[in-house]
Input
Amino acid sequence: MVAEAVVPQEVLRKLPRTVREELPTLSVETQRKFLERFQKRRKKLVVAYPLALLYGLSFVYLEETSTGIWYWFTAGGFGIWYLINLALLPGMVKTHNSIMALKVLAEVRPVGEKPAF
Output
């Protein structure tokens, strides 16, 4: 059974392949639940960059608290890690959102139903 698409294409394109493939097999209501929960839990790069400039608070924002603690104790890797963090931030946000999408999909999937992948 394939339900109508509820998740907008611009969101769908940014999701992991496994999530993109499974979402259309779910009911419209389940897709809406997924979209609502994912939108609340996903992180945005426009928020992460200013937090990164504020002494590495982007690690807390991206739920990487242990990495943030090391960052703080080493004063941003003596300044080097600070620059590396700015370069790696887009990938970190994308990875976090991919993991969140998988977690949210597991939460909203009907009980007893195995993943399509």
Q: What stands out?
A: Residues 42-109 form one domain. The chain has eight helices and no strands. The radius of gyration is 17 Å.
